[in-house]
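Course assignment 3, question 2. Fill in each field.
Student: A.L.
Task: Predict the tertiary structure for the chain below.
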Amino acid sequence: MRVYFLYLVLALIFISCSNKKINPEYLKEIEEYRARKDSSFRYDPNSPFNRDKSVKFTGLKYFEVNPDFVFKSKLYRYALPETVIVLGTKGEERTQIKYGYFQFQYKGKTHKINVYKYPESSIKEGKEYLKNYLAVWFRDLTTGEETYDVGRYLDVEEENPDPDYLYTLDFNKAYNPYCAYTPIYSCAIPREEDFIQIRIEAGEKKYHNK
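Answer field:
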């Protein structure tokens, strides 16, 4: 609870110094989301910090909440989805299906972000939910500076059968994969074409400064 109020105070200070208008309900949603994640990372026995006791948890770091980085997009499926190799941070190869893309406009320019799916043959028993999971990861002009060197991930809803359904791309919820905190994990590395040519100053920042 103390963490939540600290986030709220900082966010309110930011608002008072900015001309941007942030919906109070949305601000509360993001701050509660961040507070829950901090609590989970601190106390959940399966969190990367509790699985690797050599790494101390001092709280996740974020950009200020920025409503300019919330977008809506249909899922544009590729006519012929391509099976591609995605490298992991430990050098292993992973097979993914380049399934489609989302697109959004920022400062008058249109950008796209690829969407990947797991091949059905790679989905193990008990993880059938991955069949409709849409994997989204990216790098941008903040990567290696304010944000994690490998890149960041973005959760969206499971695939909706309606081709005109609008998904929410909320970069204020962009997050680091577990390998950003400890090397005991390996994570998918965004491919060269997953680079977005803008500074996405939203979501999670680097955890380690070195």
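Instructor remarks: The chain has three helices and eight strands. Residues 2-196 form one domain.
Grade: pending
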